[in-house]
Every structure is written in structure tokens, then in C-alpha cells.
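Before relying on records like the one below, remember that each one covers exactly one chain. Contacts with other chains, cofactors or solvent are not represented anywhere in the record.
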Amino acid sequence: MNLPQDKMSILAIGAHPDDIEIGCAGTLIKYSRAGHRVYLLVMTSGGLGGEDEVRRQEQAVSKGILGAEELYWGGYRDTEISVDVPTISRVEEVLKRVSPDFIFVNFTDDTHQDHRNLAQITVTASRYTRNVLFYETPTTQNFSPNVYVDISECLEDKIKSLQAHNSQVLKTNIEGLSIVEVARSSANFRGVQARVKFAEAFQSLRLFINI
């Protein structure tokens, strides 16, 4: 992805701690290293997958690895993100603060209701944002990417951001398989599709190309 000379604001939105990391950490790291402003919005503290405070602390550590300037919390309970006016307004509040040039968020088709609902919420809240890209997680379904980012140079930092979520590394619901292995396999597979060594893949809601 070619970056302009002017600094951009990049907002990554996730339903739970570590969603952003598995979906687009490599891309965010590339943006932050290039001098762009990266912001995170995590809607819940993932309390059903661990202790709320532990997961919030883990997300704070990952924020540093990603090079994000600010971490916003949605304040919702795990599994209880609803598509309604107050939730849309909460996302809109953060959008007003950040004025993002790019938004990255969970995909619309997913077996987890929080992911599905957050995607729908963001579609509405981001109606005036030029660039909105959906990322994938292990629970994503029917994902047909049309945008790829080469993360070969920063895959190991993506892995570190996932390892920062120490309480979640082995919680893949697949015996003997860690989230680190999932991330490496996915990056390798998407890299083959993109004709690079490692990549992250996205499906665009809107992608503005300025010629």
C-alpha cells in the first residue's frame, strides 16, 4: 500500500482484545513506522474469555508494540454488543475525535455475534469515511479478500503483539494449536495469494484511490 507524504489517521476497531492484532497488526505497525497516527477502539474487555482487568492490561502492552497513540474502550460487556443507536453513537464519538482516513474492523460474516454486530455498526458509523476495510479472524466466514498488505518485514512484531495477550495465546479451541501458529499460517497463505512471503488480507467496503 503506497503511503502519501502527509500523515494519516488510522483507526482499528475490534470487538475484543486481540481481534485487532490477529486481523491487522502488521498493517498497523507499517503505518505507525511510516509516521502515521494509529488509534485503537476495543469495544469490550473480553470478560468471558478471561479476567477483564488482565485483558485490558494485555491490550495496553500490545498498544505499545503496534505504535498506537491512543487506546479507546467501548465499555460494553463481552457478547453484548448490539446494533442500536447508542452503540453506533459511541463509535461515532471516537470517529469524531480521530477523523480517520482509514478504518479497519471485524468482517460482517462471522460466527461470533459481537464481530457481526460491530461490523454492521461500523458500516453505519463510518458512512462519511472514505476508506473502510474488513479484516479476518479465526471465526470469520466467507471472506473473499480484494486488498493485501505485505507484512513480511514486520510479521515477528505482529506475533509479539499477539503474545502480549498472554492469557489468550492457547485459547483457539483447537487442541495443541496456538494463536501464534494460526497467525503465521494465515500470513503465509495470504502471502501466497498476494505473491509475497507474508501478507494480511482485507475486504473493502470502500477504498478510495486518488489519481
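Residues 9-204 form a domain with the Rossmann fold fold (CATH 3.40.50.10320).
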